[in-house]
Write a structure and sequence with these properties.
The protein is an all-alpha fold. Helix content is 75%, strand content 1%. The protein is built from 20 helices and two strands. Keywords: Cell inner membrane, Cell membrane, Membrane, Symport, Transmembrane, Transmembrane helix, Transport.
C-alpha cells in the first residue's frame, strides 16, 4: 500500500508540483535566488549579530541546515545513485536550484505571519500562513497535525536507523546500544527548548559541514583527472544516454526529485517552521538566508558525496553495495579504512542535529493547537525518545517508505498553500526591492504598509530607519 501511494505521490503529483512551482516562482520573481546570490553573503554576515533574548538569523539558519544536512546528504545520495544511476544527481541539482526560489518564498511568508512569544522567541511556519494568510485555519490544523505525526512516527526513526547501522558496520556496536545513547543525549537538549537547540546547532553544524566539505575536496583534488568524466557520466545518465548502475531515464528523474526534496526540503515547509524563529528587520532577509541553505545542502554537500562515490573504482567497475555502505566503501578506497570511522562520526553528528531539528518541527506543530499544555509536550518528547531507540532496530526499506509518504503529503499541502499566497510573497519582495533601489542598505519591514494582511503587531512593530539606513540615505 505504501509503495502504491508513494508511487502516485512521487511519480506524478509531486514531480509536477515541485518543478512547476519552482520554475514559476523563479521566473515570476525575476530569478530571485540568482540575482540576490551575492547579497546572500552580506545578509548572512549581518545575521551573525545576536540580540539578547532573540534567536539570530544565523542561529535559525544553522538549525535549518542541521535538518537539511543529514542522512539525505550521505545515505540519501547513495540511495539515489544506487536506484537511479548517476543521472539522479543531475536532477537533484535541478530541484535544488529551482527549489532555492521555493524555499525563499516559504521562509519569507513564515516570517511575515510569525507569532511573538512571551519569552522573546517567535513561532511560525506553513500552518500559520495557511491560517492567517489564506484564512484557512482547517488547513493549518491539517498541516500541523500531519507534521507532528510524521515527526513522531517516521522521520526521526530514519535518522536513528542511519546512525545505528553505520555504527554497527564500523564498530560492531549493537543498534540497541547506539539508539539508547542517542536518545539519552537528545533528551538533555530537547527539554531545554528552541534556544538550547539553536545554541547547540550553532557550534556543531558549521564544524561538521566544513569538515565533510574539506574531506570531499581532498578526494576531488586527488582524482582531478577523473572529474570531467564523472560530470559527463552524470549528464549522459540524466537523459538515459548512458547504461549505468541504477535505473534508466525515468528512475533518474524520480530518484533525483525524491531524494533531492528529502535532502534540501525546499517546498516541504519544514525549514519555514525554523525560519520564523529568527529576529530580522525584514522577512526577505531570512528568505535569502534560507535560500542559501538549499544551495549549501544540494549544490555543495550532496555533490561532495556524489563525487566520493562516482570517483571510486568500486562503483565504476560495478558493485551490488547500496545505501550508506556504498559511501563508506567508496571513501575507504580514497583515503583508507579509517574513513569508515570518519563517516560514522559524521553521520552521528548529522543524525543528532537533524533529530533536534525534527523534534522542534513536531513541537511547533503541537504548539499550533496549544502552547500551554506542558503534559502534551512532555508526552511528545517521550515519544521522540522512544522512536529513536525503535528506529535504530528497523529496516531501511520500511523507514524510507514511511518517511517518503509523510514528506509527500506535507510537501503537497504546503505547495498548494504557496501557490495561493505567492501574490503576498511577491509584494513583500517588491517592498524589499524598492527600499534597496531607493538607497536603503538594510530594508526594514513595516507592518502598517500591509494593512490588508493579518500580521501580528508584536512580531513586526513599526520601526524607525536605523542609523545605517540614515547614513546610506545621506550618502546617496
Amino acid at each position: 500500500m505504501l509503495a502504491t501511494l508513494n508511487g502516485l505521490l512521487w511519480g506524478k503529483i509531486l514531480i509536477l508540483l515541485l518543478i512547476g512551482v519552482g520554475v514559476w516562482f523563479t521566473v515570476a520573481s525575476r530569478f530571485v535566488q540568482f540575482r540576490y546570490f551575492k547579497r546572500m553573503f552580506r545578509v548572512f554576515r549581518h545575521g551573525l549579530q545576536h540580540e539578547k533574548g532573540h534567536v539570530s538569523s544565523f542561529q535559525a539558519l544553522v538549525v535549518s541546515v542541521a535538518g537539511r544536512v543529514g542522512a539525505g546528504n550521505i545515505a540519501g545520495v547513495a540511495v539515489a545513485i544506487t536506484l537511479g544511476g548517476p543521472g539522479a544527481i543531475f536532477w537533484m541539482w535541478i530541484i535544488g536550484l529551482i527549489g532555492m526560489a521555493t524555499s525563499f518564498f516559504e521562509c519569507t511568508l513564515a516570517q511575515v505571519f510569525k507569532k511573538a512569544e512571551s519569552d522573546g522567541t517567535y513561532r511560525g511556519g506553513p500552518a500559520y500562513y495557511m491560517h492567517k494568510g489564506m484564512k484557512q485555519k482547517w488547513m493549518g490544523t491539517f498541516y500541523s497535525g500531519l507534521l507532528a505525526l510524521s515527526v513522531g512516527s517516521a522521520l526521526i526513526a530514519l535518522q536513528s536507523f542511519t546512525m545505528a547501522s553505520s555504527f554497527e558496520q564500523s564498530f560492531g556496536v549493537s543498534p540497541i546500544y547506539s539508539g539508547v545513547v542517542l536518545a539519552l543525549v537528545t533528551a538533555v537538549i530537547i527539554f531545554g527548548g528552541i534556544k538550547r537547540i539553536a545554541e547547540v546547532a550553532e557550534w556543531i553544524v558549521p564544524f561538521m559541514a566544513v569538515g565533510y566539505l574539506i574531506l570531499g575536496l581532498f578526494v576531488v583534488g586527488s582524482n582531478l583527472e577523473k572529474v570531467p568524466d564523472v560530470f559527463i557520466l552524470i549528464a549522459r545518465s540524466a537523459f538515459g544516454l548512458e547504461q549505468a548502475i541504477g535505473g534508466g531515464f525515468g528512475a533518474a528523474i524520480l530518484m533525483g526529485v525524491q531524494r533531492g526534496l528529502f535532502s534540501n526540503e525546499a517546498g516541504l515547509g519544514h525549514a519555514a517552521n525554523v525560519a520564523a524563529i529568527a529576529h530580522v528587520k525584514h522577512p526577505v532577509n531570512q528568505g535569502i538566508v534560507q535560500s542559501f541553505s538549499v544551495f549549501i545542502d544540494t549544490m555543495i554537500l550532496c555533490t561532495v558525496t556524489a563525487m566520493i562515490i562516482l570517483l571510486s573504482d568500486g562503483y565504476l567497475n560495478g558493485t551490488e553495495t547500496g545505501g550508506i555502505a556504498l559511501t563508506q566503501i567508496s571513501l575507504a578506497e580514497h583515503i583508507g579504512d579509517w574513513s569508515g570511522i570518519f563517516v560514522t562520526l559524521a553521520l552521528t553528528l548529522f543524525a543528532f542535529t537533524t533529530i533536534l531539528y525534527l523534534y522542534y518541527l513536531g513541537e511547533n506543530g503541537l504548539n499550533f493547537f496549544s502552547n500551554e499544555n506542558q503534559k502534551l509536550f512532555n508526552l511528545f518528547r517521550i515519544i521522540v525518545l522512544v522512536q529513536i531507540v525503535w528506529g535504530s532496530l528497523q529496516e531501511l526499506t520500511t523507514i524510507f517508505a514511511l518517511a517518503d509518504f509523510a514528506v509527500g503529503l506535507l510537501a503537497m499541502s504546503n505547495l498548494i498553500a504557496l501557490v495561493f499566497l505567492f501574490k503576498i510573497g511577491k509584494s513583500v519582495l517588491a517592498d524589499y526591492d524598492d527600499q534597496l533601489a531607493s538607497g536603503i542598505d538594510h530594508p526594514t519591514f513595516e507592518a502598517n504598509r500591509f494593512n490588508e494582511l493579518i500580521i501580528e503587531q508584536d512580531s513586526w512593530p513599526t520601526l524607525e530607519r536605523d542609523m545605517d539606513n540614515d547614513k546610506s540615505n545621506s550618502t546617496s
